Task: structure prediction
Amino acid sequence: MASAGQNCIPFIVSTTLDKPDSKTRKLIRSHVMRGKNTRKSRQNRESLRNLESEDDDELACVLATPRMIASELSLFSYGVELKPYMLDLIYRAFTVVKPSTYTLQAITASGARDDLFRFSNLAQDPGMLHSMLFVAQAFYDLSLGTSYGRVATFHMTRAIVYLQQRINNRKEATKLTTMAVVTSLAIAAIMTGDIEAAQKHMDGLYLMFELRGGVGSLAEGNMIVHKAQMIDLGLAMGTGSTPRFIQGEVSWSPQIARGSTTTRFPELGTIHSQLDPKLLNIWADIREFSRAANKADETGVKMSKSLVSQFSTSIPYRLLHLQFDPLSLPELLRLCMLAYVKNLLVKIRSVGRKMASLANKLEVALRAQQFFPETSCEMAELLLWSTFVAAISIFDNFDAGWLQVLMVQTISTLGLGTWTEVRGVVKRFLWIDMIFDQPGMQVFEWISRGSLTP
Result:
């Protein structure tokens, strides 16, 4: 088992819990430095042993842990000493990281299996504890605009070391806690924009599923399966890979929309006659889900977990199985719907640009849209929505000059001069106020700085 793991799961290393060996340190160092600049930093040269001996004050996070949370944590035996900064990170993971990265958190009802990290699970496996601490600290570092540093590196190292111990034991290798550690490492890699590392983690996780008898070996609704499917679909969007964690034939009928909402598309006008019925069914589902999300935000009555789960898997899975001419309008809408869904499921700045496959295809499809004297108003309005979704979800660094030019041209063609007027147009298509309004206004301000004349 160990040798097989080393061949197929590149993040698994052979070492002891005392100190990583030179090979492991090299692996971890390359993992941490992937995507960073070449300037050496003092922190990355410090050893893990020095880190462990640091005073708690230097490792402490700015967020204080409430007494109630700390009291609950003290009831569990983690197998490692919980320092004050660790309690802060645990609290941060449950109260800050998830709501900040999962866009629909505020309007989705909680479920019994809602958390990948639960106190009881953390107590079972110190590797899971360290992986969660790594995710929380890495997220905090990224929120400051920096790559993750020595504290995150330390916990990532510990997570990998404990993971190695479990992988070397066949019974432990396929336990849910072991798979949860791998899943969390994949999530962290996506958070940091390290798509290559996330892919490797998912390769290892897929092998674990296969050793258990496949994805179907776990109960329907299992949180690890759900997270794996979400990551798998995200990587498929970003790299063009084929999804592996969703089984079964594709159902092209509407999954969420019902009745007349599956056949009427007033916002598309005459354009809908040019579109594939499969694409229209997906549009209807996203439109109905968006309406439900807006209603949940307005009324305070949260959407069911099952509805969100169905949306988050069935929509991207179907979109990824469609293919059109790269320069065509149907392809533009397919890509924009993928970008729209991405922003609903993951709210991490700059990740969209690192989804190279989706970003490149979307740029090609948008650049292919040209204005002619006979361009209809409804086509210009649809293009306006498309450019805003692309700017918010994928090109969120506001540095795509070609996109700015296209947006200015579209706004000028429609004779729009204010954000209120622009919002009135884009809301007629697919739009969730709580998710798109604020970044949409930021995009409009970005455009306005270049004036509204082409």
User: Anything to note?
Assistant: Residues 259-448 form one domain.
